[in-house]
Amino acid sequence: MSVSEWDAELLARCRATRDVLVRRRRRDWRDGSVFLERGVQMTGRYADGGLSEWSCSEVAGTSIRLNTDAGLRYRAESGLDGSIAQRVVENGIDVEAGLVPASISAPASTLAPADGDRDLTSLTEELLALLRGIDAAAREADGRVQQVIIMFENVRRQVAVGSLDGGVRADNRDLVYLMMRVVAMDGATVGAGFYTPGVTGVPADLDPAAIGGEAARRAVAALSARPAPVGHFPVVIGGGRGIVLMHEACCHALESDEVERNSIYAGRLGEAIASPLVSIVDDPTVAGAVGSYGVDDENNPARPTTLVEEGTLVGFLTDRETSRRLGLPATANGRCVSYREPPIPRMTNTCLAPGPHSVEEIIAGTPRGIYAEHVAGGEVIEHTGEFVFRMTNGYYIENGRLGEPVAETTLAGIGSQVLMDIDAVAGDPQLGAAKCGKSGQVVPVGVSGPTVRVRSLLVGGTRR
Amino acid sequence: MNVASYLESLVAEATRRRATVEAAVRHTSTWEALTWSGRRLREGSLQDWVVTLRLREGEHEGFVTCTPAVPPERVVALAREVAGRMPVRAPLPDAVATDAWSEAESAAVSGAGRGGLGEVLADHGRRSRDRGFTTELRLYQTHTNVWMRHAGGLRVSYPDVTAALELRISYEGEQSACLLRGYFARTAAELLADLDPVVFEAERDVHGMAHAVLPTKRYTDIALHGLVAARILSMTVPAMQRDSVLEGWSHYRDRMGSLVAPRGLSFIEDTQRKGAPCHLPYDDEGTPTRQVPLILDGRLEGFLADRRTAAATATASTGSGWGGVLGAMPSVRGACTVLSADPSFPRVAPDEAGLLWVVQTQGMHLANEITGDFSFGASGLVDTGDGRRGVRNLTVAGNAFALLENIRAVGEDLYYGPGMGGGFVASPHLKVGGLSVGH
Predict the structure, then answer these.
(1) Which residues in chain B have their CB less than 8 angstroms from residue A340's CB?
(2) R_g (Cα) of chain B, nearest Å
(3) Which of A55, A95, A101 sits opposite B33 (nearest CB)?
């Protein structure tokens, strides 16, 4: 069975499940969707030049989500046989009805394994070649590299989504995501480099030499890092993964479930919320970015959504449930981590538009501050805008020049102030990969954009 | 096909291929309810089946998970494919051959607290709203039945129930403030029974945060709310695992018997503790769990081990091979690690004045568990003589291993938080030294 036939089979099952609901639709089902997924996921750990852990998972499940007058109601089950729809129309979708345990699925009800054996073999070869290549490149880059640890996730996943008032669509959600920690040693001094490359695609889409070299460079730079200072400083943040600044400081509070709960940007459409240098688009169509897809998990075709235009708030990110309740346009941002969880409004790829400055002039124009070359994740309280994110590699800026490396630390601020405090944006956009957790659902998100400078952020180090 | 016959089919198919297997089936029944300011926004349920299979063929081992809709022949073939890619591994010692099997558990779905629970939560939210607060409550309960069957003879099953409450409460005072907290228990019924005091405490704290004062001094006397303390202490658990010792990065390697915490404090792994949010008589490798003292009266007393790390260090598994909720390959992890103090250890009262009480953190998940270094965003409360008021937009930096050595006093109540690699860590409120507060 070819991949396209596999598509067709999943779509047919999705259509059949949806049709049962449409035929027996109840009056209070305002809207709703059916979500089927199946795939193979390889996760594990590559350390000290070999696989130390490797799990291979076959996943298959179905979920029905209904927007009712009483709120969102959903039921999810493993398996793809479509019987869930019959149970929903006969017994309702309330929690109590969903807790009657289904019997263990009969093996005969599975989809045929498609060309899974061949795919698994070729995927595995590609993945192992990538991991070996990264390990070798990191060790070759610098003799002080002692350990290369790669947590990997290689997903080949297909989903089919249908909606009560629309048709059905299928989508590929292939993903390679690596979380690397490289340890370098110089005598008794230990430095660690952190890097999370990723792509929607296959392992061969990533460049092992570039990834290994970059991770090694970060670890070696950490060897000579001085403790981070404590206090408020101008901070220059590198592009790519550095756009987690916008992800935390701005965009979580623009997700419509947060808007409904009175986030700091609720009711502020049309207002200036950021420096005029700031324009942000959420774009699930960026080629190769880990947050990209063809259709969201509620059957809305992917398309870009402008959120901030030259500092002015112009849009929010919605799912079906909150767009209906708030009267906002649907923006194809209903995402779930799997059939097991309901969709909620999520970012896809957060893209900050390039600005007029060069990185060199931004650094030269900073008498004393911090250059956050690489950052990891963060966290925000959407109601107040208080946020943090982690700087993993950085440098002191002294007299407009990069100085000594600074040890990893936390950067903190209040989103509404920080957005106004962005006083320089460079023209060097880069693409980064990250994972974002919300309500227990961790999904891949892309971050794209250039180097920026914030007039003042709280640096949470120990050096006074 | 029932669970027993499915597992027997797996064992038989592997045997036919001259391989040995350790297989498990998990049935998970989860429900959740989410209310905001008295409105029932979301309710739903999940019925999930997961099969896990560890197969050994020659000197190679493969691990797969799938649904039981995948035929046994296909599962075994997949595991053999994976095994063929893995490097040579030493054989695992067999789990103790035990027979503790119950078919009846396949029908057991916990009903504790589920009848009309959305309305119960919404009612709490409406009452909180009447007091001037906006409160979001998310409650969920997961009931898991586990059946394990090893070719070596093990045949056991057990049920486990875990419930969680996430609370997000906001208040508009002199400033806008918001507080997020998570609580865990065995059942939703237990969480609902304690909901009033939990909401009242959160209302009191967020009210203080909404009337914040500017930080004016260098804070040296610091207390951590039990939920904050548990998150920080969770960073120390990976260093108390035998895999981190074997890999050479454990802070505690070569320190067995040394003082690593003040005398009078103990840190104990206990997955069957009364009041804990789990009840796990076996780990995911089939080893019976037991109490494992990691720190006893301040001294490093032991490390957690699964079967593989135990074999590599000529010790016995402590029943600490855990695979996570969805059945990933088991490895050494803490499942329920609890900090406790002797009765003679100094106490800190929950309303003790003269301290900066750190009641909320951001970014704890970004800490470095290898070095123990952390730096997170924080909000605190101080007693101004005019009631407790907030101190906002702080950073708190330090080292988790040093913090464990610098505990000066503990509170009475125990708070369970999530562990770094899954599971739970519990701590009372702590009065500590050695932290750097930025503002």
Answers:
(1) 46, 48
(2) 24
(3) A95
Please state whether beta strands A386-398 and B436-438 pair in parallel, antiparallel, or not at all (unpaired): unpaired
Nearest to B383 by CA among B423, B342, B421, B355: B355
B404, two tokens: 């464990």
SS3 A221: helix
Pairing type for strands B155-172 and B176-185 reads antiparallel
E runs forming strands in B258-385 = 265-269, 292-296, 299-300, 321-322, 331-332, 336-341, 356-362, 373-383
Q: Which H or E run includes B75?
A: helix B72-85
pLDDT band for A111, please (50, 70, 90 cuts).
very low
| Residues B354 and B383: beta-carbon distance below 8 Å | yes
Q: Around Cβ B103, how many Cβ atoms within 10 Å?
A: 11
pLDDT at A91: 87
CB of B8 within 8 Å of a chain A CB? The answer is no
Nearest chain B alpha carbon to A98: B45
In angstroms, the CA B327 to CA B343 distance is: 39
Question: Does A381 sit within 8 Å of B46, measured CB to CB?
Answer: no
The verdict on B109 touching A (C-beta cutoff 8 Å) is yes
- B201-210, B321-330, B382-391: segment of lowest average pLDDT: B321-330
A368-381 and A422-425: which strand pairing? unpaired
- The whole-model pTM stands at 0.93
CB-based contact, B251 to chain A, within 8 Å: no
| A170 Cβ neighbours under 8 A, 6+ residues apart | A7, A10, A11, A14, A158, A159, A160, A161
Distance CA B117, CA B99 (A): 37
* Alpha-carbon gap, residue A18 to A8, rounded angstroms: 15
Please state, in angstroms and rounded to a whole number, the distance separating the CA atoms of residues A104 and A79.
Answer: 10
Best residue in B22, B46, B170 for a mutation probing chain A (most A CBs within 10 Å): B46
**Listed residue (B89, B105, B148) closest to B287, CA to CA:** B148
CB atoms within 10 A of CB A378: 25
Q: What is the Cα–Cα distance from A379 to A399, expressed in whole angstroms?
A: 32
For B:14-33, CB contacts with A below 8 A are 25, 27, 29, 31, 33
